[in-house]
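Q: Joint fold for the lines below.
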Amino acid sequence: MARALVARSTFLGGDGRCSSPASQVSPFSHVRIGRPDRRQREISCTATVGTGIAPSSRIESIENDGRVYNFAAGPATLPANVVKKAQQDLYNWQGCGMSIMEMSHRGKEFLSVIQKAEADLRALLAIPDNYEVLFLQGGASTLFSAIPLNLCSPEDTADFIVTGSWGDKAYKEAQKYCKANLAWSGKATKYTSIPSSGSELKLTPGAKFVHVCANETIHGVEFKDWYPAVGEGTILVADMSSNFCSKPVDVSKFGVIYAGAQKNVGPSGVTIAIVRKDLVGGAQPTTPVMLDFKTHADNKSLYNTPPCFAIYMCGLVFEDLLHQGGLEAIARKNNDKAEILYRAIDGSDGFYKCPVEASVRSVMNVPFTMASPEMEAAFVKEAAGKGMVQLKGHRSVGGVRASIYNAMPRAGVEKLVALMKDFQARHQAK
Amino acid sequence: MARALVARSTFLGGDGRCSSPASQVSPFSHVRIGRPDRRQREISCTATVGTGIAPSSRIESIENDGRVYNFAAGPATLPANVVKKAQQDLYNWQGCGMSIMEMSHRGKEFLSVIQKAEADLRALLAIPDNYEVLFLQGGASTLFSAIPLNLCSPEDTADFIVTGSWGDKAYKEAQKYCKANLAWSGKATKYTSIPSSGSELKLTPGAKFVHVCANETIHGVEFKDWYPAVGEGTILVADMSSNFCSKPVDVSKFGVIYAGAQKNVGPSGVTIAIVRKDLVGGAQPTTPVMLDFKTHADNKSLYNTPPCFAIYMCGLVFEDLLHQGGLEAIARKNNDKAEILYRAIDGSDGFYKCPVEASVRSVMNVPFTMASPEMEAAFVKEAAGKGMVQLKGHRSVGGVRASIYNAMPRAGVEKLVALMKDFQARHQAK
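A: Joint structure:
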């Protein structure tokens, strides 16, 4: 009985285009009401508006229905279709008469959301049954404390392989809760490499765990296929915040994988921990209740009120990743995008430089430098004016940084590379 | 040069009304594009849709453009206009070309959001300058650990006045970090009262702090004007999660006020802590970095990535509360709503019973019982069918519970009371 329904908007009183040069085209995006798979009614509305935005946000060339290419490192761009769906459903989720934000976390509606999110994540990563999936608050920064509190007694040793700023923070925080040992550090070479074999590591026999940060956002170094082999009884722990769900992972290699959502899989506010079940329980007695894996495992992440909206958004992202063909397909797309960008950098005769050792260059975060900070600033500014934003490098290292997570469209990378070539052509002589 | 622009939607292909009895009217809400204060263009689109919802969510009588009256205790109903505004802006926030969910937390756009949220909250509560306002993750349940960790050394005593389940949880968690003393407990009378004078309390001279839970959601007891006087050097700490911003508060009485947002001021995922500045620093050495007030005070809540969307939503709520006239006006509205409901209960000749002592009955959470669990279940079910949902009492106490936070419209309470009277008339003889 479905009837196709299309609404056309008729405008009374001119075309509404603002005469101010500050105006910009912001077409109202296509809206679908109701569940997309049946009985849908569609209304398309378009308006040309002036928005009176402060000058520094003025964007003169807009594509993609007003959307910019957002190269931020986190929070980061989300899939446009996911944001649209969230927008459609925000006021009245599936006809329940309330927003997903307003629902009891113990009601059947939200339970269906969190359960599906978990199920989809398990499918994406092929998570074995002997692992818990926990939706937590507090960011990876809270896991820096929680991991040693849960896995160690204060006398236990834990080895840290520090390939950048985030692994370094994990190492420092762990010192409160265990004997943290620096098994390897890339600091001397400005975090441009990753150990490639166990022989480089100063691992402690009988260490409770070995910690790595799978992808370092600031320096752009990423573990590829190699992870350190750990001894019997030693757990491999990985902070995968910034490459989570960007490629397949053999979860069974790890005791704990954790990830703040706000790089690849959602907005900020939820952190996912995948914990082997035998590692739950036995936390140090002074562990805060909210940092104890057992609290969350026993209550399926509903010990207290979870970050419901963030979990809901992750669920939409996981569903979308499955629709795209899962992580093998996603990894291919990401590798293609990264290759386009790195090829442009390496082929620029030194106009753009990436200091990271080629075999460990991150597919997610691409830092590069130019001849001077002034040149970098000019490039970043020009890119922003052309709808490519957040390219400024991290404040601790400067330079330029393009974060090209799952949701960065290939077209965004191509546009960036086109600008890089054009910018070089205009500035080469200088 | 602003031109008024109105679009009318013309429907091609019938009125689209679904013939299935499961259909419901879900008019698409009024959408405004651009900043509401100038150069706005408005498009109104309406469609009648069927949404194919699972039978248990079917709601047969809808008011308020599809919106139900949601009496959940948290997450809870938000102001409808706030949810609509968030929906309008979700895909493209103020023409920036990205969602508030996708922005760098260190960019000027989000900084403006968090700064305004803080400024508006300071205005609402008249927070003195010598207090920090912190936007945290982890819920009040994390503050149960953080408060003693920040305020006490392990040898210090802290007094707990336990008027319900939440105060009890705070008391139990604190035992890990200090000498927690139970200064008063309402357990013997099933948490239906609050101490009315200091003489009832077993306070410890020299206690580091005295902890209260200002409003207990499960049992419906609320501190009114009286708070325990504390000795020189003793800090008064209050969990105000469930009545935060429902009425004016003299912040200067307290050393710390904390509140999960998801009762009165936002979605779940952010917890607000108002901390007197001299109490920042000096946390126990093993305090996790994310539980140390100093971490967040020093970094204006941006030590790591905060829960950006939740903070944004709180900002919209604070702005709306100011538009409504601030907390004096809000308190009057809340008192009126509560009075309507308690009067209906007390005037029912025992058909509905509220066990809470009249002088401490919560204005936020109204629990009541009926003749039997079966009667309660029938009432809750009938109410749900009439668009009044989430009335089931907390699983630990049963019964019925109407949470009537700031955002519950007076009309919702009136509708509930009308049903109560009608239900009684139909069931009185039984």
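Q: Anything notable?
A: Chain A touches chain B through 112 residues (CB under 8 Å). The CA atoms of residues 5 and 41 of chain A lie 5 Å apart.
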